[in-house]
Amino acid sequence: MWTRDGIRQLVWDRLGDHLLLVVSNREPYVHSRVSGAIQCDMPPSGLTTALDPIMRACGGTWIAHGSGNADRETVDESDRVQVPPDDPSYTLRRVWLTKEEEDGYYYGFSNDALWPLCHIAYTRPTFKEAEWNTYRAVNERFAQVVLEEVGDSKAFVFVQDYHLTLLPRLLREANPNLIIAQFWHIPWPNPEAFRVCPWQEDILKGLLGNHLLGFHLRYHCNNFLDTLDRTIEARVDRDRYEATHGGEKTAIRPFPISVDFEDVSRRARGAEVEAEMARLTKSLELKDRFVGMGLDRIDYTKGIPDRLRAVERFLERYPDYRNRVVFIQTGVPSRVHVPAYRRINDEIDSLIDKINWKYESDRWKPIIDLRGPLSPLTVMALRRLADFAVVSSLHDGMNLVAKEFVASAFDEDKVLLLSQFTGAARELSDAVMVNPYATDHFAAAMKEALEMPLAERQRRMRRMRAVVEENNVYKWAADIVTEMVKLEFGG
Ligand code: GDG
After folding, report:
1. What total number of domains does the chain contain?
2. Which of 401, 408, 468 to mutate to test the pocket of ligand 1 (most atoms within 8 A of CB)?
3. pLDDT in the model for residue 435
4. For residue 399, which of 345, 352, 422, 468 is within the disulfide window of CB 3.0 to 4.6 Å?
């Protein structure tokens, strides 16, 4: 079983003479001013949830966009701050972007073009040349900061996600001694979908600057190799999962990401969680009711309207459950400057209104709308209070909400309803699988979850817990480091 100490030792043994740099758009700790005081929060993001425990264990520097309104006040003269605030274990180096840069690179090309392009969830990508130019310029800015951090040292640079596709090539050209790997946190689509991107060649060449490129699933690796094959002059070796371009080799591998099972499971047992559960039970009037929950970054890929429609159908088809089940939908608004995200927020609001209006009684509302961000304590208490959780993504690289729910369920007495279109569905095959597009089946799955005998619930949850415990986030990181060392140093 991989642990925090195990990954620390591995990195120390195999890469001890290298600096460890993680580079991402999203920063793991955001400082903001709230009523005059500075507060520090972790953003609701799967990427930071997964990477923070690794950095805490291994130390090093995490380079990311400083997005908080008190971020500048909290760094030193070289834009660095030690994090986490209560137990400083690594350095956060912040990169500053102007509003225009954030607009073109983050809201524009990253989230209005690449995100819908890769998820194929019936939201059309928007390609604008000006946004692409800003995206390129911001990738160059990140490259400068990485090179400055590295100086003359040996370094392992671990790039994250789709915001930084051009960075690996820029780094490799500027400093051939760097070891560069990238993890792609979202799906990679098939070549037919990807080919609509006007800058597909630049993106692929940028990514082939990596020595190692990781995806969650082998299916995404295959899609990537097919895309390369159709798009650029690269030699694709499907047996070895390698691509060679301009004499340089990139290995393509699946590494299913995960959570710190031990930590989540331990926090779930905390006494303060019990107190928070009691508070929520009272304020949300949950006593003697079945509780379902959904927790998401509000995003059109997460299938939130589809889930709400299934709740509506459930109440319509199984009237005996009226007054007896509440569904808590918590969500953190994200990327609100992108029009598609504003639309999804409005759609969720009006669906919740409509369903509650249709079914509510004097003392019961079927859907409780808790807009986040919620504190980690409240999130944990909600997981514990829930009899079932619903993850209904239309398409999702992995989905850590599902794995966190499993890791929190130490009493094994809970059911997970999981979309078959998440990466997590490959590992969590004991979940009740749902197709979020099939509303009637989805509603029937909710009934199945509520009526599943205790022994069956426990059997399924026990098996899922064993899977997440073994394939924890430390294993994910250890597999990447081990592969990198094998590729670079032959073992
Ligand atoms: C991308 C990929 C992949 C949510 N609301 C609150 C809150 N959260 C936390 C959850 C979880 C995280 O946010 C969301 O993680 P996901 O993995 O579900 O989703 P994405 O952010 O879309 O992540 C995804 C991931 O990268 C990692 O590779 O799994 O497929 O899309 O940790 O608990 N946390 C708090 N308050 C909230 O209101 N504190």
Report:
1. 2
2. 401
3. 98
4. 422
